[in-house]
Amino acid sequence: MEALTEQQITEKLAAIRGWGLIDGQVQKTFSFPDFKKSMEYANKLAMIAENMNHHPDIHIRYTKVTVSLSTHEVDGITDTDFKLAKECDQLAVDML
Fold it and tell me: Residue of 15, 29, 78, 82 with fewest CB within 10 Å of its CB?
């Protein structure tokens, strides 16, 4: 597994809506109608991440869930981060 270059990250970010590069991580904040849905999303995302063996930072603030992705093994961002980003987006669509 190799870290992506800045150019590769920029290209991949352009292909997914709402994600940005913040503090060296690919990050997006999802909004839900209430705290219960936020927690449901975080718990379902945890199962997806566990199955992928790739664990994001998840910050829950009432109706907002911020997901931050990077790969600690390479101290950077990899294709796996973008695969999980797409899973995050799909999960949010499925839940709303």
Answer: 15
